[in-house]
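@channel anyone free to eyeball this complex?
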Amino acid sequence: MAETSTPTLIHSPTIDAVGLAERVARFKARSIKTASKVSALRLALSMIDLTTLEGKDTPGKVRQLCRKAVCPDPADSSLPHVAAVCVYPSLVRVAKDALKGTKVRVASVATSFPSGQAVLGARLEEIRYAVAEGADEIDMVISRGKFLCGDFAAVYDEIAACKEACGEAHLKVILETGELHTYDNVRRASDLAMEAGADFIKTSTGKVSPAATPEVTLVMLQAIQDFHVRTGRMVGMKPAGGIRDAKTAVTFLVMVRETLGPAWLTPEWFRFGASTLTNDILMQLAKQRTGHYQSPHDFTND
Amino acid sequence: MSTRISVLKTYKLYIGGQFPRTESGRATALSGRKGQHIANLCRASRKDLRNAVVAARKAQPNWASKSAYLRGQILYRAAEMLEGRAGQFADELRLQGDSASSARKEVDAAVDLLVHYAGWTDKYTQVFGSINPVASPHFNFSVPEPTGVIGVLPPQAPGLLGLVAAVAPLVAGGNTCVALASPTHPLSAVTFAEVLNDSDLPGGVVNILTGLREEILPPMATYKDIDGIAAYGTTAAEQALIGENAALNVKRVAFHPADALAGDPYRIMEFQEIKTTWHPVAVG
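replying in thread with the prediction:
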């Protein structure tokens, strides 16, 4: 084994939590109105990974979600489709079939989501299965236990192995920031994942609270920026979990724009992992279109 | 020698069980009969209305599922609290221009009205529900159920009694509501919110805004998540605006004269839907 596979993390700075909170507070205070708001909401809609990750998921539910992904609001056909549908590996085939002929991608969580507590061989096998079923993107979880023990090399190796197992599929690496405890750890895990070959880094599984807070998202965006400056490689970002309203989503877009620049403001480089966010965006867009505040009852419940 | 600085009250909105300032940061000054400055009031914006409706919608299923007895207990407790603070309310009404005797009478009437509707909570379903004879082997019965989230425009005056008369029957029937306090008598509305908040009424069941009718009424009338509007003492133009926009999502609408404030179980029924159930029965 070449010694280069051991990450040094010498590039990871420590994070100033107070400065971070202050910076985020300023992002939250931005006022985005009318035409800018509409275009931001449409962009946010096109960046959503429409997600269902429940034990009770059925093929019927996934097909329903896929239809929503292609046509989010039947009352407004001018809206963009979402970026992807995100499901468990056993439902990838169903989603793939339902989305045939569309540009909506299929993402699958794998590697013993959400805990990651299975042997590496089984976790890699799950990736290969999901890719063989047709997944375009794989959302893996890192071993937070190993990371917190300081066994960075093991985490690095597992990410690299997952990347290899993905083949052509894009790899998103879920750090589960709610279990990493400190911003310093979030920064180190981000650097580790990018060094190991992640195409995207993602905040959370959505099963642990807190999930995608603006603060951890900003830490990760800064990590992506530094990595890009150092290596020239662009890495995508996906906050997931806890982003429930359109206003918060717009705050995230402002953060991306001002940290990474406009190049990242496309579904190719930025995603929202969300389910309830979609309806709130649709309601806000309908409000802008009709001038009337909307009722959640008028939008599909999924 | 020390001079005590008196503590002036800040009148705020009541949304979701909390007392926030308006998100718009706007305020209007309220003047007394002799033109003296009484207080600054929040001038609610349509976004405050939106926040209030979201809170009311969230609170509605839980409030409707509380037992009728408990809803009655909570309304009765509100009456108790109002009685206990009668002096404060009378003072506020006088500040807003009422005479001492009419202020006291109004507070008493508001307390009585709360007790009246507290009593009706576990009786109106008995009185207005029915068992219906049908020509098939079914047990057929009808029960009233709350409409949902109701927008309320209480009369300009009386400030306290008008608000209580408009809100109490809705809440007694399991609805939640968003009320725009009378612009001429807003003080007692805000203080009444404190009474409600001290009465174990869950947050969001009653939300009270202060502001201008001409600003709040149009978004309230078009709001698709408001299921009904109860309006007192409205002009023909206001009624036309409400009527026209209520068609958007088929809101229930009730107009009343500003002085039609007596306790009346039919007020509860205005914002109830009748649900009829056909229950198959075994025929021996």
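from a first look: The CA atoms of residues 124 and 161 of chain A lie 8 Å apart.
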